[in-house]
Amino acid sequence: MRYLPVGTSEGIKQISHGVGDFSAGEAQLTDKDRKESGLIEFPVVLIAIVPIYNLPDVHQELRLSGEVLASIFLGDVKTWDAPAIAKLNPGITLPSLRIQVVTRPAGKGSNYVFTDFLSKASAKFRAEVGVTPSPKWPVGEPAERSSDMADRVKSNPGSIGFVEYQYAVKGSVSQALVLNAAARFVKASSESVEAACKATEEPRWNNFSASLADAPGADSFPISSFSWIYLRTKSSDSARTAALMDLLDWIYTEGQKYAVQEGYAELPAPLLTAVRKRISDLR
Cβ(23)–Cβ(251) under 8 Å? Predict the structure, then answer.
């Protein structure tokens, strides 16, 4: 196996052109991907994209809403003591410090998940940026890799960015609680991400391409997503297909526990059963 960290968009492009046996990422396939390129996606694990920040003299956990995050990443909210942030954080003395926005470059799955949430929270963000793995950010400087994002935020007071949950934890970077659809501020965890999945998928457990952003439920973390594996629906190499099916069998059984060890959340049992059944139909 050869792993190429090329980003979600490039991964979809490569598998569409017959490069490799599968790819993976956090963007939903388009109708064109499915019909013209003959691709199909299956959820593999659950992830959270968390807002991370650096405010050295603020020791309480910051609370942010999707609307305020959208305003920050549009460049409309420029300082940490802005009224919109202060209103969500009563009792916290916020510094009069300019917000330094850190973004991700084009083609990243984390962009897709984050813009999906912000587009649901803010009509202005949806109109000006939209849901995309390649947003045209009006403010900020890009960090190429997730680890770069965590390092840059951690080393620059006043900065804010967004990153997969495990990079915030491993990098010991402060992460914000985010207002969810039930009007509760929730911190990312395997439990709160799984709650978002359950709230979206129950009781049918068959929408494998569902958006989990801004999911209902009191315990749901609102910037959650599936991480998908993208496959071609047809293959002319029976040996490689058999090997791929063996890998998928492992992913949806033993492999789930390793995903949890790496900071993801495993798929709920009913969804695992549904995915395994659908994959068996491809054999």
Answer: no
Q: How far apart are CA 110 and CA 132, in angstroms?
A: 10
Q: In a 10 Å sphere around its CB, with 0-12 CB exposed, 13-18 middle and 19+ buried, how is residue 215 labelled? A: buried
- Distance (Å, whole) CA 45 – CA 272: 10
Largest CA distance in the chain: 63
* 123-157 residue pLDDT tens: 999 999 999 999 999 999 999 999 999 999 999 99
Token pair of 133 as six digits: 């793995």
Give yes or no for a contact between 225 and 252, defined as CB atoms under 8 angstroms apart. no
Q: How far apart are CA 55 and CA 64, in angstroms?
A: 14
pLDDT, tens digit, 9 for 90 and up, residues 213-229: 999 999 999 999 999 99
Tokens for 117, please give them: 């949430």
CATH-assigned architecture of domain 49-186: 3-Layer(aba) Sandwich (3.40)
* Domains in the chain: boundaries: 49-186
